[in-house]
Amino acid sequence: RTSCLVATFLAQEAAMGAAFTIRTIGPSQRQKPAKPSPATAILVAPSSTMLRMADDSAANSMFSEQEQKLIEDLYAKGGEDSGDLKKALEETIPTMPPTLLVKLRQAGNDANEAIQTVANQLNQLLDAQLEEAKDTLQDLLEAGEIRKLDSLIGKAAKTGKLNVPFFNVLNVNIQDAAATVAATSKEDEEEKEGEGAASRLQILQHVYTRCQEEMEKSIPPGLALLNRLLRQEQEAIRKNLYEHYLTPQSNKITTPDGKEVELKGQGAPLVSLEEFASAIAKTVEQIRTVENAGATDRASAATMVESCRQVAKEARIVIGESYGIESSQVAEFQEGLQPVFRPSSADSPYIKGEMAAQS
Fold it and tell me: What is the value of pTM for the model shown?
């Protein structure tokens, strides 16, 4: 199941065009197996050419008037001082449209001076952030114990290090670890287990889960709940989450002697149905934006959208069980999501992404 936080990062990750893998050296790289050091880091060469255009000078034609204005404003803020431009980019990247980010990553040789300057500074900034992200992940992997690891993750979240570059690096390492485990034959399973291939994957997955949980503390409740549901593979646990967050809360108080007293009426759900539906809609729009920016393929985008659809269907069942299948709550929840999963127009933002929403 795909996390919507990571789905949100896809376009920016692809735009970075570089991957860093921290891993221990496998047996195929040495004559005799030896206990690896978890601190051993291997830096995979940047794959920025993956997203480079055949003719970068043609990139200017790719930018809309609105995008060119944003680039020119950034260029004007920077002036002749690259430090000022870097600062302006650092402030702008979090809110920069994914499509523009991908285009700028491709425009390092553009004939337009403003576009070329901003693009090159952006590339340098993102590459530096990836290096920092690699170091952050390395520090987490060297924590040595869960309690210390959790503390470091908390500190990284507070200092803004659990960002797009960090999740890019983390995802690449998880994929690498999973591939290593999958490639292990039965004959050398015991040997590989001794070297910690499986444990490395488990540690990385734990880091991923904890970082996601930390990020969820700082995002809207509806989006945080959706993220948890998309990460959760156990149907029973997902049902518990729906019931806990989306249905009315019982009004109970605990007396000094420990007894619970039920009060009349019910409290509001922890996450409103409107907010949850809005989180699903926004996530689908972001996925389509990523797809139309060329940062992910159609099949991957379809899989992520289908995961969101499945969550909406499961939520509707639980909401119906709580409020009644003919209730206004169920009707409003369905109506709010109908344009998302059954767009009435080919130009819908749930097909075309954010550019359709802006037009």
Answer: 0.66
